Amino acid sequence: MFKSVNPKDISVLEVQKLLLGGVSPRPIALVSTISENGEPNLSPFSFFNAFGANPPVVAFSASRRIRDASLKDTYNNIVRTKECVIQAVTYDMVEQVSLSSTEYETGINEFVKSGLTPIKSLVVTPPRVKESPFQMECKLLQMINIGNDKGSANIAICEVLYFHYSEDIFKDGIIYPDYIDLVARNSGDFYTRASGNSIFKVEKPIGKKCIGYDNLPEFIKNSNVYTANNLAKLANVEKIPNKDEVNNFIKNFETNNQYDESNFYRFLKRKEHKKMLEVCLCLKNSNKYKYFLELTSKIALENDDIDFAWKVAIFSK
Ligand SMILES: Cc1cc2nc3c(=O)[nH]c(=O)nc-3n(C[C@H](O)[C@H](O)[C@H](O)COP(=O)(O)O)c2cc1C
Q1: How far away, in angstroms, is 238 Cα from ligand 1 center?
Q2: 60 CA: nearest ligand 1 atom
């Protein structure tokens, strides 16, 4: 069953739960601020993102408490001082970051409570967090208050004045997910570790005019083998190979081997699409021939061998 809900008809807590689960996983800003009396404050905020590069702009929301609509120390501090430091949260520090979110009384130093290490900033007064490999010194550009009730947003739009980062998190000119090992917030107590098996690539269609989903041949769109992701990968090419290209390509995989179906399943398990095609070409008389070819094309797509996948897909017709 699918439900449709007007947020005005449910409690703020239920709305919050929907947002936390459905707008998820969210990056986490670990925000340090300084009170008027010079006391440091540190808290995490996952209503957070980046919005532009020139000037560099990030924003987070220290919302009013759902319990009693009271304002958080981070909000009060940033409104008064117009400064903060925002740091990325990595797997190695996530438990300490969670500790820093404890609702201590105003004036309690969450650096001390969490055991995270304050270090001097370059151009703003709040300290940076040494343990984070990515830190941004910020000034408040604009505070947008949306409502003044329980759970209302206070969006702090900040300009980044200084970036500080460890060079160890870079590979091939980008911040490499496995090296920075960020965490993000989901619903309830759940977090996402954004590295390892959670990371995958999707080739950007930028810079080329891809044929698009609508130009996929019907026999490919109607296949039971390809998933929606498989079809979108096929649609991300500029041209479909012609029959001659396909036939010349297929010839390279003809062998004198006496493969049978068991060989096909063995190579399927190992996701070796080239060997799968060699086997297919020995199974021309099988009633599963077309299915095997489509499966070979699908595995090629999953191995990012798109040209191979297209040629086998056309050949399977
Ligand atoms: C990972 C994480 C993300 C959080 N995200 C938010 C958020 O986006 N907005 C918010 O108001 N509170 C958020 N909180 C709760 C605040 O961190 C918490 O209310 C904190 O005590 C506020 O501290 P302060 O009063 O010192 O500013 C989050 C807590 C955790 C652990």
Answers
A1: 47
A2: 8
- What is the 24 CA–ligand 1 centroid distance (Å)? 16
What's the Cα-to-Cα distance from 253 to each of 166, 279, 308, rounded to whole Å?
48, 9, 11
**∠ Cα 292 297 302 (to 5°):** 125
Cis peptide before 40 (omega within 30 of 0): no
pLDDT tens by residue, the chain, 317 residues:
999 999 999 999 999 999 999 999 999 999 999 998 899 999 999 999 999 999 999 999 999 999 999 999 999 999 999 999 999 999 999 999 999 999 888 878 989 999 999 999 999 999 999 999 999 999 999 999 999 999 999 999 999 999 999 999 999 999 999 999 999 999 999 999 999 999 999 888 777 899 999 999 999 999 999 999 999 999 999 999 999 999 999 999 999 999 999 999 999 999 999 999 999 999 999 999 999 999 999 999 999 999 999 999 999 99
Atom of ligand 1 nearest to the CA of 74: 27
Does residue 271 fall inside a structural domain? yes
* Cα 152 to middle of ligand 1, angstroms: 13
Q: Provide the number of structural domains found in the chain.
A: 2
pTM: 0.90
Is 262 found in the same domain as 151?
no
| Pair (66, 160) in one structural domain | yes
